[in-house]
Amino acid sequence: MTSTVLLITGFRPPHSAMPRYDFRRIESRWQQYWEQHQTFRVEDCVADKPKMYVLDMFPYPSGEGLHVGHPEGYTATDIVCRYSRMRGRNVLHPMGWDAFGLPAEEFARKMNVHPRIKTEENINTFRRQLKMLGFSYDWSRELSTTDPDYYRWTQWIFLQIFDTWYDAECVWTGPDGVQRRGRGRPIAELPIPAEVAAAGQAAVRRYQDQQRLAILSEAPVNWCPELGTVLANEEVVDGVSERGGHPVVRMNLKQWMLRITAYGDRLADELADLSWPDSIKLMQRNWIGRSVGAEVDFRVATTAQAQQAWQQSRAAGGFPVRAESDVIRIYTTRPDTLYGVTYMVLSPEHPLVDQLTTAEQQAAVQQYRQQAAMKSELERTDLAKTKTGVFTGSYAINPVNGQPVPVWIADYVLISYGTGAIMAVPGHDERDYEFACQYQIPIVQVVAAASADGPQADLSVAAFCELGVAVNSGPWDGMRTEDVKQRITADLAARGLGREAVNFRLRDWLFSRQRYWGEPFPIWHELDADGQPTGLLRADPVQSLPVLHPHVEDFQPTGTPEPMLSKATGDWLYRTAEDGVRLKRETNSMPQWAGSCWYYLRFCDNRNSDCFIDPRKERYWLPVDLYVGGAEHAVLHLLYSRFWHKVLFDRGYVSHPEPFRRLVNQGMILGENGEKMSKSRGNVVNPEQVVNDRGADSLRLYEMFMGPLEQVKPWQTSGVEGVYRFLSRVWRMIVDDRAEQVVLDAAVQDVAATPEQLRILHQTIRAVTDDIERMAFNTAISRMMEFTNAMSGQAVRPKCVLESFVLLLSPFAPHIAEELWSALGHAQTLAYEPWPQADPQWLVEESVEVPVQVNGKLRTRIVVPVDTAADVLQATAEADEVVRRQLEGKTVVKVVVVPGRLVNFVVR
RNA sequence: GCCGGAGUGGCGAAAUGGCAGACGCGCCGGAUUCAAAAUCCGGUAUGGGUAAAACCAUGUGUGGGUUCGAGUCCCACCUCCGGUACCA
């Protein structure tokens, strides 16, 4: 009875088998297939395939799970990888976890669960969510920075840095065949001055310890009591911690510093050859902030004879490495303005301040220094509206003209930059100008405008900071600024009073933290008989690595700058060496940046227990061909990684000077309201939800269809709907959605394609291919939509055309593509099918529509054969009715004819 | 302040100096349906014009410039976003 009714009404039973595009079934099926068949496992060092290393910035596995921002970059790289495999490349596409860090430790503190447990839980969530999206990672290469097998080698690299000193004069040629000046060399090769050698073994060791690239030094640091750790300058924003916004105070602590500044020149110069966005290169260059100028010595004023004697000794002995105790050494980028110096400024922390302060000024200076010390970084920058300072009572002699100038202290001069002291030229420096006005210090003009039409100097209004010509500058008057700089520096150098100098805005990298959940340092402190540190250090032997975390009972912060690891028991903290020396372990831990500095190397060889990377694999895979991640890492992570890489390069462990050949930054995805996504704004989109609603292929496609990868763009849930509809149309174009099984639609036939169909196909192949090469995924998807719109209307859809199309679609929407490929009769995955080739024969249209303009305004369009010559094209245009009317009664002055593009009549 | 990047329909966007708005969303109309969903077809920058078309004018943040021709190149400015902040 039922069947009768069915026949009469044409009603078909709902069939669960698979009529429609059922993404749930398709996606889980193909994810299982890839996993079972190890489809994306990659071999190292394959000789007959060109390699391609495509890397995502690995995520911090937060407790929140995946964010829609993650799949943006990951989808882009996955498309490139899948495409590249089909183009015959051997593709390395790994994923891992940057899993050390404070949140897991905070959680441990609240819940008393070991950070490792929470970390593993978070990683499991992230891995599950990423696998849902169908990325073609080689999961056998997965790693976490928190794996002892991984951080063993992080510690090992630290020891290499510890074992290295920077020989700035060394000229050498690397394995890349490029000659460089400056090289990190083994500390054992450091020349020891005779007097140090004579002072004994301990003196030699202390001397070496000062020259290493990793040194312990007493430095003013940002201590955050709330977080229980010191923070790098970069982690402090406006005087509070970047994470959590807790107050930060400055204090002096002994901390590990990595001497990244030694590599400042190379880090800046070697950006040149990288395929990175210019804006990122510029940001790095600005961050490094290399400037060229001069160091100049000003002797504290005493008697004329003493001054003369000093100058004579300098003329004879040259410019010393360290200035004498009565000499103020300054750094300036404008040595040409030396004649305009009307005062000098020492930073309040400068070691000469006490010595220079006269009895009358004692109280004022003392008070000022105390104030400055108490000011946080925030206040010091915030209160910068009006400059403050105090006169020390002393004068120094200007080496170019013998004039005495007063010496002040002021907190607008930073102890950490240059020499911590400046010559002040209020006429030609904004800050000095402001200060001089504040304290009625004379302002002298020594630079005049170079020409009448450029910016002019008016020192009654503002400092004149432009280049120009020297005035009031003795022998240099009339010379151009650039020339005076050169010659005055040379002149000072000849007299032993100055020299050319280079400075960096970049500071050395504060490399220790006081947290539990970071890599322990493989370093011991020697103790004396009383159990006090002697200041001498010992490195763990590399065979004994990793230094594992100690067991601790609770994760409450110590409340003091004493590191968390100091809560460890004695057997972790202390040891007696073979020679009987009592040792205490270093209890600081490494910052989160450490693990991410070199993970791209370990992906090439993540199971190696003999070395951090097999040199053969390093030479095969490195450098990374494409690195995609957020612009928030534009400076720090990328600079730190490059630094470590260069140390490893100098020490012969890696063969390329740079780790990342090409860099692309994805733009942030905003909430639907155009604001940054955040819990507090309530506009967070959960990718897992999108996958459940519309499938991974739709999510991937939408993330790419939103707009250019690099651009910031708002999320639109209706847009996901749009690409889902597109995938449904693709499905119906090939599969009969009325059948109970996945069978081809009756229109899909094994026949030859028509010329029109071939033209559409090959134009699509060409456009999609070009767009993938340009990483313009949004337009590639548009082209596939156009193809689908055109082909769906065809009564007969040749199978061969659809097969090529499915291959084009597969990098973007791999699950549906695999399913369709299988429906089209293929037993194997399409992951390694050759990428379709555009046949030039079908790329040319037979005729073309050419716009005709009159005076640049579009008047009509004419259709002509595609290769119509210029004169014929013009004649055709002139013959056109609309054009004739437009040209009537006017004089044609000129005709612009671009064959195949346009005709333009210029008339009067 | 300084250094980057970006301003194009109702929205996301597209456009080697050569037809502005491809593609998608939304909306409007139609087909299918008892009805709805889904699907399919058509339309959709603005103003004028027309019964409807044709057609005309305007239009890529603002103002200028180069050019036969400018969203695209140059100059000045405005707005938004990102970076940076006394670096001598």
Short description:
With about 900 residues, this protein is α/β, with parallel strands linked by helices.
What does this structure look like?
- The protein has 30 helices and 35 strands.
- Residues 1-17 have low confidence and may be disordered.
- Among the domains are: 165-261 and 509-585, no CATH class; 291-503, Alpha-Beta Complex (Isoleucyl-tRNA Synthetase, domain 2); 687-842, Orthogonal Bundle (Isoleucyl-tRNA Synthetase, Domain 1), CATH 1.10.730.10; 847-907, Ubiquitin-like (UB roll).
- The chain is globular and about 105 Å long.
- Helix 25 runs antiparallel to helix 26 (777-792).
- Strands 12, 13, 14, 15, 16, 17 and 20 form a 7-stranded mixed sheet that branches. Strands 2-1-26-27 form a 4-stranded parallel sheet, covered by helices on one side. A 4-stranded antiparallel sheet has the order 8-7-11-21.
- The termini are far apart.
- The structure holds one RNA strand of 88 nucleotides.
What layout of secondary structure does this protein have?
Elements: H1 2-9, H2 23-37, E1 51-56, H3 69-86, E2 90-92, E3 96-97, H4 102-111, H5 115-132, E4 143-144, H6 148-162, E5 164-173, E6 179-186, H7 194-198, H8 201-211, E7 214-224, E8 229-231, E9 236-237, E10 240-241, E11 249-258, H9 264-269, H10 278-288, E12 291-300, H11 304-317, E13 327-332, E14 343-346, H12 353-356, H13 362-374, H14 377-382, E15 390-397, E16 404-409, E17 421-424, H15 430-438, E18 447-449, E19 468-470, H16 481-494, E20 498-503, E21 509-510, E22 523-527, E23 533-539, H17 570-573, E24 574-576, E25 582-585, H18 593-596, H19 599-602, H20 615-621, E26 626-630, H21 636-650, E27 663-666, E28 669-670, H22 687-694, H23 696-705, E29 713-714, H24 717-734, E30 748-749, H25 755-773, H26 777-792, E31 797-798, H27 799-809, H28 814-823, E32 847-854, E33 857-865, H29 870-879, H30 881-887, E34 892-898, E35 902-907
Parallel strand pairs: 1-2, 1-26, 3-4, 14-16, 26-27, 28-29, 30-31, 32-35
Antiparallel strand pairs: 5-6, 7-8, 7-11, 9-10, 11-21, 12-13, 12-15, 12-20, 14-17, 15-16, 18-19, 22-23, 22-25, 24-25, 32-33, 34-35
Helix pairs in contact: 2-28, 3-23, 4-5, 22-23, 23-24, 24-26, 25-26, 25-27, 27-28
The structure holds one RNA strand of 88 nucleotides.
